[in-house]
Specification:
Structural class: mainly beta
Helix content: 10-25%
Order of helices and strands: EHEEEEEEEE
Number of strands: 9
Number of helices: 1
CATH class: Mainly Beta
CATH architecture: Sandwich
CATH topology: Hypothetical Protein Aq_1857, Chain: A
Shape: globular
Length: about 110
């Protein structure tokens, strides 16, 4: 059973800050692609919605997941993290059996 990913309040708040600073209303796309050092990698970027996207919306901010990536992101949590090494959107994915130190590559 595919459960939609969850997006934290912190991730939506950071997306709102970015859009306010740029004067844009771009959506955040979270996708899974083949590649990376562990077999799959996340592609996180700003994009426009497509017809087959799952759109998760809160407070006028949108996160997009395409239909191919959705099973890989079932029940995942999309968050925003600020650490000493930098700030970035992160994904806690219960479907990943292992991940790489880079934080964008994983295996199932």
């Amino acid at each position: 059973m595919t459960l939609p990913p969850k997006v934290t309040d912190r991730a939506f708040a950071r997306l709102a800050e970015i859009n306010a600073a740029t004067g844009d209303a771009k959506a955040l796309r979270v996708a899974v692609e083949g590649g990376g050092c562990s077999g799959f990698q996340y592609d996180i970027r700003f994009d426009e919605p497509a017809a087959d996207d799952l759109v998760i919306e809160r407070g006028g901010q949108k996160v997009l997941i395409d239909s191919v990536s959705l099973p890989f992101l079932s029940n995942a949590v999309i968050d925003f993290s600020e650490e000493l090494i930098g700030a970035r959107f992160v994904i806690d994915n219960p479907n990943a059996s292992s991940s790489c130190g880079c934080g964008t590559s994983f295996s199932i």
